[in-house]
Amino acid sequence: MRELKHARGLVRRCSGSPKERVRRAGFPGSLRYMNASKGGKAAPFVPHHIDAAPEHLAGNGAIGRYVLLPGSDGRARQIAEHFEDPRSRPHPRGHNLYFGRISLGDETWADVAAVSTGMGCPSVDIIVNELFRLGAKRFLRVGTAGSLQPQRIRAGSRVVATASVRDEHTSRAYVPVEFPAVASLEWVGAARRAATALGMEGDTWFGIVHCKDSLFAREFHQGPMIQENDRYMSLLRRAGVAASEMETSLLFILASVFEQQLRQAGEGPAYRVLAGAVLGIVGDDRPFAPPELEVQAVEDSVALALETVRQLAVEERRPREPGLSPTSRSRASSTGLRPR
After folding, report:
1. How far is CA 61 from CA 99, 131, 150, in A?
2. pLDDT value of position 328
3. CB 114 within 8 A of CB 80
4. What is the tens place of the pLDDT at every residue in 271-324?
5. 78 class by beta-carbon count within 10 Å (0-12 exposed, 13-18 middle, 19+ buried)
6. Would you say domain 53-333 falls under CATH 3.30.70.20?
7. Which residue(s) pair with 166 in the sheet?
8. How far apart are CA 31 and CA 18, in angstroms?
9. What is the bridge-based pairing of β-strands 158-167 and 204-212?
10. Angle between helices 291-317 and 73-80 (to 10 degrees)
């Protein structure tokens, strides 16, 4: 695979509509379709579910924008309200792209974006694939979840996913079920620092989460497999799984698969794909918490996610010692189901 070029340099030489710029940019390597109808020649990637070109995901040097991934467009807009110089690119399907920057202090900035993935892994699969093929390599899910440990993790608190139980089928189209879905340590470490910086460490939990296909069957006792589903969820609780949601495992698997593709071309931050998740808890021993707690969970998870982006952006801009990753100093304390 050819060496990946910076997307901004590619589109600078192009003109015309966004889709024309994408077609003419000739985005290299794994970010292009192989079009069999053209004799196997690589064709530029054109997204169909978001309105974006590589220039809209470019930024932060060669690593691209930090992309926050909520499940709804309303939450994407809420996140974008915290951006400086916000811009948007609407799409008829509702996966509207919002992009801008956030301050890192000392007159430095990080380029960021937010877009809804929709609900469930099949929708995540479409949106994240399109974002990656446009140049995005830093993904942070900002979502909601139900607690599986309600005696400790209550509605209104937050869970940072360190890994995810693959109780869904989309990721099995990529790798076998034995392959673990693990969050990037860089995101986990940044989230821990962010929780401390915001004074949220007392109500921010770090641990494994559960990703499912069906909310109503697995948790709301619907369908003819009630007993099987109840036994399964009870097993996860006894095993210490922190919370349940519907998107993380595929996101983590995609990051692993995409990074392996990029590593065939080179080493360094531009060839890394990082994925993490910050989840607001909106249910505990109650299926849905009171509205005020749900609002608190969402607002606090957005604040924690934005500070997590800041922490990672600052870390990635520091000169690295040979052989040391940004999280090497905190790996020993970056996992486990407990507040820091």
Report:
1. 16, 17, 42
2. 47
3. yes
4. 999 999 999 999 999 888 899 999 999 999 999 999 999 999 999 998 766 555
5. middle
6. no
7. 211
8. 17
9. parallel
10. 60
Query: How many residues comprise the chain?
Result: 340
- DSSP of 105-160: ETTEEEEEEE----SSHHHHHHHHHHHHHTT--EEEEEEEEEES-TTTS-TT-EEE
Span 4-43, pLDDT tens digits: 333 333 333 333 443 343 333 333 333 443 333 344 566 7
Instruction: Evaluate whether 177 touches 274 at the Cβ level (below 8 Å).
Output: no
- Surface-to-core class of residue 336, CB atoms within 10 Å of its CB (0-12 exposed, 13-18 middle, 19+ buried): middle
Which residues, in sequence order, are bridge partners of residue 35?
41
Write a three-state SS string for 50-111: CCCCHHHHCCCCCCCCEEEECCCHHHHHHHHCCCEEEEEECCCCCCCEEEEEEEEECCEEEE
Q: Are 139 and 274 in contact (CB under 8 A)?
A: yes
- This prediction has a pTM of 0.84
Per-residue DSSP letters for 181-246?
Answer: EE--HHHHHHHHHHHHHTT-GGGEEEEEEEEES-HHHHHS--STTHHHHHHHHHHHHHHT--EEES
Amino acid at 38: K
Closest CA to 155 of 273, 297, 277: 297
- Non-local (6+) Cβ contacts of 120 within 8 A are 168, 213, 246, 247
Question: Is the separation of the CB atoms in 79 and 89 below 8 Å?
Answer: no
Mean pLDDT for back-to-back runs of 10 residues, the chain (340 residues): 35 38 36 41 83 94 96 97 95 96 93 97 98 97 98 97 98 98 98 98 97 96 96 98 98 98 94 98 92 94 98 90 50 39
What six digits make up the tokens of 80? 């974008």
Neighbours of 143 (CB within 10 A): 27
Q: Which residues pair with 105 in a beta bridge?
A: 108
